[in-house]
Amino acid sequence: MREALAALEHRFMLTEHPVLLGGRVVVLDKPRNSDDLISEVDYARDERLPYWADLWPAAAVLAEAVITAGEAPPRPDGGRPRALELGCGLGLGSIAAMLSGYDVTATDYYEDALLFTARNAVRATGAEPTLRMVDWRDLPTDLGTFDLVLGADVLYERAHAALVAETVQAALAPGGHMLLADQGRLGLASFLEEMRARGFAHEALHTAPPPAPAEAPENSRLAPITVYRLRHV
Questions:
Q1: Quick one: which of 57, 89, 159, 196 has the most CB atoms within 10 Å?
Q2: From 3.30.310.50, 3.40.50.10150, 3.30.230.10, 3.40.50.150, which CATH number describes the 2-232 domain?
Q3: What is the DSSP letter of 162?
Q4: Mean pLDDT, to the nearest integer, of 130-152?
């Protein structure tokens, strides 16, 4: 793993992106230009685009919400609480959960996203999260269950709503909850309805104002970002 993380410096032109998180500055390494990573092969296969390579404002809002929630409560059995991040990207949500005491599993559909998450987590916390390649259409059966599931901007398409809902339902431990940060993406309303049909209630915890243009990837949507908490009732 160390060799793979070190190789990122040779495979990519890197830039640093500082983020204020819970009163401290976390510096993320990221590719200088995500457009350079677009693969016609990946897009033709399943319309994959390298969204992971940018820091999206919703990820920063979600990470701050995790820090604001405070130290992770212990499990009833005394074990360390577990967190799962869906679509970890550059790893800010995973870093926030690690700083809050969770044993974190970071997942993405891009191997390079997992490597950048590991690199950034080591820089911020001194440790790596567990890394898993996950396709929501074929969820691994050995992920286990988690006390916290995190997702930021994971509902770009309506088709994602049912996939993410199935994943959350399968991944949450009894008594666990999900934190979702969303800018009103296409799949949000359908996802919340899918979760209601599965016996989950949601509440809006916080709405952040639209990000300034300089705080968001070029040509991205500038809309308020709401953090939702979802629990089984």
A1: 89
A2: 3.40.50.150
A3: H
A4: 95
Task: Quote the distance between the C-alpha of residue 212 and its chain's center.
Answer: 21
Residue 44: its H or E element = helix 40-46
pLDDT digits (tens, 9 = 90+) for 42-86: 544 555 566 888 999 999 999 999 999 999 988 888 889 999 999
The candidate with the shortest Cα–Cα distance to 95, out of 74, 126, 51, 134, is 126
Angstrom distance (rounded) from CA 48 to CA 110: 9
Torsion of CA 112, 114, 120, 125, to 10 degrees: -160
Query: What is the structure's pLDDT at 212?
Result: 87
Q: Which one, of 102, 20, 27, lies nearest residue 61 by Cα?
A: 20
Q: Two tokens at 86? A: 């869906």
**φ/ψ of residue 12, rounded to 5:** -130, 150
Residue in the structure block whose two tokens are 């629990």: 231
CB distance 160 to 87 below 8 Å: no
155-206 pLDDT, tens digit per residue, is 988 889 999 999 999 999 999 999 999 999 999 999 999 999 999 999 999 9
